[in-house]
Design brief:
Largest sheet: 6 strands, parallel
CATH superfamily of the largest domain: Aldolase class I
Structural class: alpha/beta
Helix content: 40-55%
Amino acid sequence: MNSYDDLIRHALDEDRAFEDATAWACIEVQQAGQAQLVAKADGVLSGCALATSSFQQLDNSIEIQWFCHDGARVKAGDSVAKVRGSLRSLLAAERTALNFLQHLSGIASATRLLVDIVEDTGCLIADTRKTTPGMRSLEKQAVIHGGGVNHRMDLAAAMLIKENHIAAAGSITDAVHACYAHDDNSFIEVECETLAQVNEAIAVAPDMILLDNMTVEMVEQARALVPSSILLEASGNIGLHNAAAYAATGVNRLAIGAITHSAPVLDLSLLVTACD
């Protein structure tokens, strides 16, 4: 049993996959089936284990053979897996398995497109906490499969001082000092929206500065100010159209929430190829 069994079981129950009215009516209980899982678009695979578990939680006699693995690039028309077992069970679990696989593969694929764009610049593509409730670790793993890196997993993993924290503390300086006083071993990042804030942040030496919603020109100016001992991240309205320009400024990473909250699914289909 893995940590996602409850999530998968909930998804199967939500679909009432254990009482599929159509499959139960049309297909004899003893009828066996075989199907190919086929990519209908180019992309990157993620979520194979969840797809396997979706089939096998419904019917543990189902066998699935993967021809590709998480993180593998696939092309439209590629057969990524073969599934064998009760035809009723294959069809009843199909949508749950595909929902997980298509969603997570979509995140991996969206990440890989950006990673490829900034290749050779030394800039990393990072996710954010803008994830689906209950699926954060899965979506962040999909980002890894796409070649990206994870920002903090949760609010306890690191300190990120944002505008509301600054307003509450009184200033960037006061906020950073308070964070160090609370835990001098914690990783501290400061969000800055202006170059004046960048200069204030430099003076208190956080581990990283986040340049929020700055233009490419402003990011270039900030990069010239910030010493290499402080990591630099840019975020806000960054995507396929401008990631290369931001990466070329020399920032260490780009944080892009859209790779988890707005990634289109990777189109995959389960095609029955034989029935005994």
